[in-house]
Design goal:
By secondary structure, the chain is α/β, with parallel strands linked by helices. Helices cover 50% and strands 16% of the residues. β4, α6 and β5 form a beta-alpha-beta unit. It is globular and about 45 Å long. It starts with a strand and ends in a 5-residue tail after the last helix. This is DUF3800 domain-containing protein.
Length: 225
């Protein structure tokens, strides 16, 4: 029987100042090869003189963590290189966007909505998911609200025997890193649409039109309704 991997990433934290909360799920049929694309990406980094840093969008955009002291030009080259990998790898994704103010600081309401979102999506694609003998869900368990929503909604919508939960780290899996990039790009799209883009957004992506043409359009081809 075939296997499906679901990689999860989120943007925003409950109780923090972030205005939006996003959850991105990346779906990968494990029979579809990603190794060839990853090998080409890593070879490109070596040929271009770029460091093979495990991709993490937030630190890259802001020059923090592993990207501390790295010139913006080099960070943008790393971003474009990883975007090319994401465009080429065989997977689909979906993102759920919530404006935190709509829940009036009620965490229980938000968690209930998130569980409904995930369960409704899984049930609406139930025939597809039932073709897989095993569904492996990868999440680093960074936030309890996400962990609880994932376990509750997937157990409700799918056979529990088909579920394998595995903790992961963004450094270990290129597909998890892809979920990180997609979540960041979807958040950036929300900010451009609301005209709340930051100075960093403009420096990295350009104006709204440039962002849509050069970044968002490329990944939205993988968006699954």
């Amino acid at each position: 029987m075939s296997e499906l991997s679901i990689m999860c990433d989120e943007s925003g934290k409950w109780g923090k100042l972030s205005e939006y909360y996003l959850i991105t799920l990346v779906f990968h049929d494990q029979s579809d090869d990603v190794g060839t694309h990853i090998a080409k990406y890593e070879a490109h980094l070596g040929n271009a003189g770029l460091p093979d840093i495990p991709f993490h969008a937030g630190p890259l955009l802001n020059g923090h963590g592993d990207y501390e002291g790295m010139p913006m030009r080099e960070r943008k080259r790393l971003l474009v290189a990883f975007l090319t990998l994401v465009r080429n790898m065989p997977f689909t994704y979906v993102t759920f966007v919530h404006k935190k103010s709509e829940f009036n600081d009620n965490r229980q309401r938000f968690e209930a909505q998130l569980k409904r979102d995930l369960a409704d999506y899984l049930l609406s694609h139930l025939e597809r998911f039932q073709t897989y003998g095993t569904v492996k869900v990868y999440y680093d368990n960074g936030q309890q609200v996400v962990t609880d929503a994932l376990k509750s909604s997937i157990s409700y919508a799918l056979s529990k025997e088909a579920i394998v939960y595995r903790e992961t780290c963004v450094r270990d899996y290129r597909l998890e890193q892809s979920a990180d990039l997609l979540c960041t790009l979807e958040l950036t799209a929300v900010k451009y649409a609301a005209n709340t883009q930051t100075a960093t957004d403009l420096k990295i992506f350009g104006n709204a039109r440039a962002f849509k043409m050069n970044y968002l359009k490329a990944v939205r081809k993988k968006l699954r309704s």
